[in-house]
Backbone:
């Protein structure tokens, strides 16, 4: 290929645009990953709803998480959604 022709100019332009995009992509990735280090929106110690304190005082409070037989922490959906009389 002869230097200065349109196809070699196109390759140089593509290479320059790749060099310009790479740092911008790196910055975007760092911003997204840094967001994962933020404080959680809802704390496990704060009441989950307006009835949490009521349930706690009457001994009907269901924990947010339970451990299964393998030691994995799972959400306590059954205990929290169970209708109490």
Residues:
């Amino acid at each position: 290929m002869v230097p200065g022709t349109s196809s070699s100019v196109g390759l140089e332009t593509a290479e320059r645009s790749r060099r310009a995009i790479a740092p911008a992509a790196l910055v975007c990735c760092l911003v997204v990953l840094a967001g994962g280090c933020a404080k959680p929106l809802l704390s496990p110690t704060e009441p989950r709803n307006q009835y949490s304190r009521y349930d706690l005082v009457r001994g009907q409070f269901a924990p947010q998480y339970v451990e299964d037989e393998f030691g994995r922490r799972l959400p306590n959906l059954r205990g929290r959604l169970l209708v109490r009389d």
